[in-house]
């Protein structure tokens, strides 16, 4: 059963076959307001480490159990950063909408955006992930493209770069860009 809001199946909180250690089933709330609610307090909820591990296992992606908690922290941190960047773009439309909300999102890790494709030709660097986020700008749907890149580690800590921009789906998004 695919959830149309995030294009993911409902992820179980149960231990995956072959999993050795116990992972937390606690979920964190994001700061990102949900468009499917009129309640300003309703925000998106991040997956628990167990759900994150199950999602990676389902996609047959490597997920060392000892690093899942850190991977979830990075995932959540990057999504908060992406939302901050979306809000910078949305600030141009404060007169028409004081509180944009995230309607839904879609991970597209195998799809290069046009910008990422051109950048990969020139610089040889490809994003490790891509998301399309659909934002409700007080009744108007606006799609944002987010490319996630690995950065140069700083003090033995991983670094990441996000390229967030409105998708050029209409003239308004083109003029915003």
TrEMBL record:
Enzyme class: lyase
UniProt function note: Lyase that catalyzes the covalent linking of the heme group to the cytochrome C apoprotein to produce the mature functional cytochrome.
Reactions catalysed: holo-[cytochrome c] = apo-[cytochrome c] + heme b
InterPro entries reported in the protein's UniProt record: Holocyt_c/c1_synthase
Superkingdom of origin: Eukaryota
EC number: 4.4.1.17
Assigned keywords, A-Z: Heme, Iron, Lyase, Membrane, Metal-binding, Mitochondrion, Mitochondrion inner membrane
Heme keyword on record: yes
Record field: compositional bias (Polar residues): 11-23
Record GO cellular component, one term: mitochondrial inner membrane
Protein family per UniProt: Belongs to the cytochrome c-type heme lyase family.
Record localization: Mitochondrion inner membrane
Region (Disordered) location: 1-42
Any one GO MF annotation of this record: holocytochrome-c synthase activity
Protein name according to UniProt: Holocytochrome c-type synthase
